[in-house]
Amino acid sequence: MARWTPERRRRTWIKGGFSVYYVIFLVFIYGPMFAMFVLSFQGRRGGTSFPMRGVSLHWWEKLIEPSTVGDLQGALMRSLILALIVMVITALFSTMLAMAFRKRFFGSDALFFTVMAGLMVPGVLLSLGLATMMRQLGIPTNWWSSGLGVHVVWTLPFGFLVMMAVFNRFDARLEEAARDMGADEWTVFKEVTLPLITPGIVAAGLFGFTLSYDEFARTTLLAGANNTLPLDINASMTQRIRPTLFALGTASTVFSLFMIGLFLVIYTALTRRLR
Amino acid sequence: MAVSVSTVDSTSKPPGDVELPTTPDDAERRVPPPALVGGTPAAPAGFAAVKADNREGGFPTLWLIAPATLWLLVFLVLPLLGIIVFSFWDTEGGKLIADPTLEHYRDYFYTEGFFDSESRNFLTLSVFIRTLGSTFYFTALVMVLCLIVGYPIAYFLAMQVGSFKWQMALFLLCMVPFWTSYLIRAVAWLPMLGRRGLLNELLLLTGVVDKPVSFLLYSEFGYVMALVQIYVVLGVGPIFFSLAKIDKAIIEAARDMGATPFQIFREIIGPLSLPGVAIGMIFIFVMLMGEFATAVVVYGGKASTTGTVILNYYAIANYPFAAVNALMLMLAMMIGVVIILRVVDIRKEL
Fold first, then answer.
1. Candidates A99, A177, A260; nearest CB to B59
2. Phi then psi for A48, rounded to 5 degrees?
3. What pTM value is reported for the model?
4. Which residue of A has its CA nearest to B327?
5. Chain B: nearest CA to A269, how far in angstroms?
6. All domains of chain B, ordered by start, with CATH?
């Protein structure tokens, strides 16, 4: 057994202090969401703050009723479909881009900064620019056209950075070997490259899906006639705030967490298979 | 197999010529190995050449970058250029017309009483510049707070947590909120901050105050707190990565030579984590400058940010003026990013 030297005692204290701070930090970032979760089960007569006046599923039932918060089911469906399309495009584009960036090519710096600009340019600017332009050209905005466009601009840099990191650690000799044995480019990609980078593609897809599913600023002016879920949430906030909103927020958050969990499971399963 | 085939390749011949027989006698007997059928033998020269140029092969670059590049042109570059162009256009009956004017810029900078011609003094700044200023002020404040709150977390994860598994698990736990809706996270502050909110209950319970205080919700305090909670995870990530890269041996060496913990931080850990700090701060900075939803939810729309100004002018179909505000916002952001990069040269540090 190690002796309790002053030095060791001091380090234990420091570590303990940091651990306590970490727990406080978690309470800080999760606390409000937890309060929202609890309040969504507010009693029939309760309001949007504590104390709880009984416990009920009243506000959850109201959420499912079609009339309460507009076309909620429709908004959810649109958000899901949009997130899935964004996921596929993000995974595809970021893989292709990262593969291109394994070589140097003319304009690679410019392209790199353009991709990164998608992360830097505020959503409200993109919304304004594209919405004004489409209005001028007489093209109607829609969640599946202009909305999809700016969502990919936002998610692509994340997926791209993930895939760049994947290819940085990639052993190109494996591909060389396959090529030397006479495999054509498609075979090399399908048999060698793709299986090795699949976990990365899943991670890029996760960014695509969740960031699109939650995106609000970029869709504000670009969703057209039909709202996505975040837009619907925002619209319901301009009315009187009821615990229904908390139920909606909780449901949406739980769904996000479920998706993250699902992606993590797929990711670990894939990396384990590689080893 | 791999060895035998690479010897075929290592005879220095131009690409595509590998199957050419070396002797006429060979020509009859030699059948290309099945793997080579239909394939383009890639590496032309010997081992050294393969090593030097392992970038040979792969799909054509143009095909790989074309779709994403086109997408970015249409949905990123053109809209931004559009903002610049439209800021000089005029409107007529809610429609943009290509009639170049600087009117909107004048409106942006000039307001009644802005310049006193008698005393030749600037009296007040225009309301739009002041809005941009207050956006900048809140951004800077929240950035600093995010750094103060987030840095110890990143430090704890990188330096104090021993096992890699735990490190990743605890880090992921911090990052999860990033993948949930920030709009909902802003909403979640409502039951916390109100007059009968949880924070008030807590204050009453601990006896800090004896009556519920009302300065929490729809106030600067609540607004800043919500922003810190929403954006702090963006700072923790990059700082954690730059701290985790530090070679622990350097710290051990410094400690062995008698450096105090403060000295170790000031001389080693601090400087080496600066790139992460800069990247995190740039993330937080650009997102906060374009922020508008939290201001509406938690601040009750009492104060406007440049983001809300832009949306308001879009709503009343004054597109050029919205564009001018957007351009000024972009300008302010560029200045901010340049300042951060002046403090830390990321390229040099990476």
1. A99
2. -90, 10
3. 0.80
4. A125
5. 16
6. 2-52 (no CATH), 61-122 (no CATH), 128-349 (1.10.3720.10)
Task: Tell if the CB–CB gap between B229 and A121 is shorter than 8 Å.
Answer: no
For residue B290, give every residue at least 6 positions away whose Cβ sits within 8 Å of its Cβ, in sequence order, or none.
A121, A122, A123, A124, A125, A217, B307, B329
- Tell me how close the Cα of B190 comes to any Cα of chain A, in angstroms: 8
B122, β-bridge pairs: B115
Task: Supply angle C-alpha B135, B141, B143, rounded to 5.
Answer: 100
Question: Which spans in chain A are helix H?
Answer: 6-39, 58-64, 72-100, 108-120, 123-137, 148-168, 172-180, 185-188, 194-214, 229-238, 243-274
* pLDDT tens readout for residues B210-258: 777 776 777 788 888 889 998 999 899 999 988 988 888 898 899 899 8
**Residue pLDDT, tens place only, B6-34:** 333 443 444 444 444 444 444 444 444 44
The model's pLDDT over B160-197, given as tens digits with 9 standing for 90+, comes to 887 888 888 899 888 888 888 888 888 888 878 776 77
Give yes or no for B175 touching A (CB within 8 A): no
Give the separation between CA B196 and CA B83, rounded to whole angstroms. 44
Q: A71-239 belongs to which homologous superfamily? A: MetI-like (1.10.3720.10)
